[in-house]
Amino acid sequence: MLETLERHLLDTLSLQPTISEYDLLKMLRQQQCEGFSELEFSDSLSLFRSHFLLHHVLYRLQTQLWQQKAAYLEITPLSICLHPYLSNQAGLVEPDALRNYYLDWKNLSAMTGQALEDLLSQFWQKFYAAEQKAEALAVFSLQEPTDYATIRQRYRQLAGQHHPDRGGDTQTLQTINHAMTILSRYYRGFYAPDHEA
């Protein structure tokens, strides 16, 4: 089955060298390819299994094409691209944790509905945490790269400027304090506002 799917994907990518994963999954389902005909995009576990199978085969194909010096298959979250082989190209990076994950069948068989829910929950927690950090930096008019000393200095400036005793308002000061609490988790590990005043 895997060899047949590899040939099918290579034929598809030869005709359409750049394609999104979503479009590729839709096409495989429409063509009733083995492992994809039962794909339900609304079912997280079904979608994960199809996603895993697709990436397993894509990474196998990537390795084969590179070793044969036939092409370079680039696999990113946004697209799958088949490039001509170039001898001076960086090629396959070793070790590649993502490729290793998808090439190990145990990761597919170990994935239950609950395990997938936990994985997705961890992903969204990290996503929202990163978003929260960016918003907190914006409150301080800072951006990456920065450090804790710069953040603390900016906090003191803003806290002094917006303190109600100096003509500022409580809500703005609360926003500044909240931003400092978030940024301290990333740049210091903890934060006690009364220690920084």
TrEMBL record:
Keywords: Chaperone. Coiled coil: none annotated. InterPro entries: DnaJ-related_N, DnaJ_domain, J_dom_sf. The keyword Chaperone applies. Residues 135-188 form the J domain. Signal peptide: none annotated. This is J domain-containing protein. It comes from Thioflexithrix psekupsensis.
